[in-house]
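Hi there. Long-time user, first ticket. I'm pasting a complex I've been working with (about 1074 residues overall). I'd like to know whether the download I got is complete or cut off, because the file seemed smaller than I expected. Thanks.
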Amino acid sequence: MFELTAEALILLLRLALVGLIYLFLGMIALAAARELRLLARQAPQAGAARRGAHLIVVDPGATRLASGAVLALRPITRLGRAADNTIVLDDTFISAEHAAIVQRDGAWWVSDRGSTNGTLVNERPVQGEAEVQPGDVVGIGDVRLKVAP
Amino acid sequence: MTMRVRAARPRWLELMLLAIPVLLLAVGLTQIALARGEAPGTQDEVLVAVLGAGLLVVHFWLTVRHPQADEVLLPTAAMLAALSMVMVARLEPGLASRQAIWVGLGAAALLATLVILPGIDWLRRYRYTWAALGLLLVLSTFVFGVDPNGSGARLWLGFGGVYFQPSEVLKVLLVVFFAAYLDDYRELLTLSSVRIGPVSLPPLPYLAPLLLMLALALGLVVLQRDLGAALLLFGLFLAMLFVATGRITYVVASLALFVLGADLLYRLFSVVTVRVETWLDPWATASTTGYQLVQGLTALAAGGLVGSGLTFGYPGYIPAVHTDFMIAAIGEELGLVGTLGVVGLYVVLVHRGLRVAMLTVDPFASLLAAGLTSVIGIQALVILGGTLKLIPLTGVTLPLLSYGGSSVLANFVLLGLLLAVSAEPRRGHDAP
Amino acid sequence: MRRNLEMLQLVLLGGFVGVALALGYWQFFRQDDLLSRATNPRVAEEARRVVRGRILDRDGRVLAENVSEPDGGSHRTYPTGLLAHLVGYHSERFGNFGIEDRFDDYLRGDRSADPFERLTSALLHRPTVGSDLVLTVDVRIQQAAVEALGSNPGAVVVLDPKTGAVLAMASAPTFDPALVDARWQALVDDPGRPLVDRAIQSIYTPGSVFKAVTAAAALDLNLVDPRERFRCVDPIQIDGLTVDCRNHAHLPVVDFREAFAWSCNRTFALTGLELGTPRLVLADGFKPPFPWQQDTSGSSRRLEEYAQRFWIGRSVPFELPVEAGQLKGGTAWYPSLLAQTAFGQGELEATPMQMALVAATIANGGSVPAPYVASEVRSPGGATTTLKSPGGNLGRAISASAAGTLNEMMILSVDTAYAHPAAIPGIRVGGKTGTAEAGETGSTPHSWFIGYAPADDPRVAVAVILERKGSGTDFATPAAHTVIQRALDVYHR
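Hi, the file is complete. Here it is re-exported in full:
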């Protein structure tokens, strides 16, 4: 019933056309899957080599932060009472836009954003910008946050 | 700063993937020929050769000079380009060779971008130049603009029979400008605010140049009735602003402005009113303003799951089917499986582009990649959304799939820039 | 910034998910809806590309086929020009009619005798080819029928009484089915109404041909001895209506068979009124009180029952719609109405098809044959499907012996009485004439004939009506004669 006529060939080519698109997508999916597995195996070392930093809550003050909680630092971290800050510190003595910690050229800098009561590093007020190292304690209102790697 | 060149390594994945678009073109052209009762001709062979050669040259160049660049972007774009060549051969056989020329030129432009570009940093240095150039181009359509398609808007510049749309170039130039500016003022934009009583507003003084540029661009575009480009620029601006600052406030404010602006446009411009009403019920005006949309949707429905097969459908009833409404022809002849495949290709493109942005260390390069990807992603979403009655129709083309020189060229240059960024130093492992 | 990028990716990918869902919606869920709307040009395109199946007569002669034009299109032609109403027409603008309409799904390839073949054809993108349709009609008999009608408005129906196969069905005035598109408005406005298929769609007062039904009732109920003679001269009065006995002035004494052959109104008026009694009293000279003056219900019920059995007042099952006609309108029975109805007037209305079935039933020994016209469908690949097996019937109207007696009476009418123009040398023909008064008093009556031949083993049954032409004997009967002659020459089952 089926000779390999032009008609049958057309049908085959139709299938092939769509099939090629999905073959392409499939190959990419496979490559992505392989990459993920590779990533998973490398993850522990990658984690250690990552240039991140954290803040450890030494004193939550009047905020709802838990003492000892570990907060991750982002390239730009905003701190304050307003809800759209990266780290929200809900205490009336803390300004809406209080402080910021940014990463620049591998180092971490704390700056005050024009707060009423000022920002402290190791209990000393910050003028403009101050670089912080792991171990330094940032003070905002009654809250104390220690910089950690 | 020249781009650092790591030790050359073979780009196997890219090579394997590149075989498929070439095969797709061959299979598609053959099927079309057979269905028309002919044997595949010399023109078909030339088309396949042109695509194959163009891709090989670019692949070779990447292998030698930028071996660490992303290996999936070029093949995915090539798939879309190959599919466009197949569809143009089916829909407008007379234009098939032209589309091939455009794709060939596109590959050349991509290569030129990679070869000539002195480095990503160089782009950042001349940021205001790019902005000015873009605006100048759009301004020139005011003065010299022509309307070769009779669509009512003079959006094209022509040189001896060849037409190109400056708005396509404008997009790329603005992305570079935005990326540079946002990178400069990123902290300020993210951190500072202007306090008005209890409310804390974004720092308008620093936003001003950005907003001014945007307003100028939008104004020019709106005055030229190119509402699609306006929507695109706005979305692009919003995306890049968000990526740079992460502030939801900006997003909310921008959307509010958008709603206000859209409402204003709806009241003021009859064009907009008509578009919105047609979008809400195209069948009410199925023989006039709703015709294109209704025929597009009907063609999609006619395709069903597997389509009617190339040349066996009736996409000729759809206006602009070889440009803006290409997805309807794909839907009718390749079915839902075909259209979902196309969506999949765009998804891959967007994902890989943003992945480049995520992995690149330099923030400017990262922003640039995000912006370039957003151009393609948002444009695709806007035209697909319009064709599918999710949003009102705007006159934008389907990136890489549409017939059209300036669209293809601009997108390939864009791709070239994206590949250049992907060759930049990145964090983490060395996976492709 | 990475988090922001991830959010952006989520938003954009979410957009594409929305697009994918929308694609599924339009291409899958709304598929049937969108494709069936008027805005879809594909329906018309596909229809234009279909190679429509042919319609053939019983011997394979082409009645309708597509002819391709040089520009790639095609148009439908009707080579014989004889079957405009039965075969019908196929018009893109005005729809289909007749058999072209009834079997449109087979003709345009939507339905096939071989579904597998249809599937492979579709998969291989072959142009759709419709199936051919074979009818029971014989073009030669149809030609005789059309010529017999000439330009007189009227109809002819020819059936095989044993199988029910329609051998010819003509209606006049007619039209050219290939020119329907061009002449539509003129055809619709034509006062002669050429588009109406008078054979099955027009209802007429049957006149005396209906006496066959009344006689059938009386015989089947055993109310009369067909050979018992009685005097039949005096007119009778029924509620102010005078029914006289003019048709056999040369035969004052007749039996029931002769009364039938000579189409005696008086006899049949009485028969109708007395169907409810145990025995017909037909002779002159009976005195009142007449039983029917109290109560006609017994008789009227019987007449209704037999009319039903002969499918008068019911729509005959047939491939094309047949008007039902009526025995009586909305009023209740009263004696003079019953009397008139019994001899074929009153409010009686029937189609030529139904009257042909009456003749066919008598020829078929009392069993009503089921008429059909489409016998077979042939797919492009050659597979055939039989549409209707011959021999189906629509019930038994009367007993075989009653049919036998009625047969004698019909033969008598042809041999000796009013139906003699139908006689064919060497062949026994059974028949009955009718001259139906209709419309205003004084207007020309319809000319009717029903009959069959050869009477001992009938092969064809016929009904002919010529509108407002005059007496049945003078017009319809000679016309029927030519048709029956031709049919017997060519049709041998």
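A couple of notes from our side: Helices of chain A lie at 6-49. Chain A touches chain C through eight residues (CB under 8 Å).
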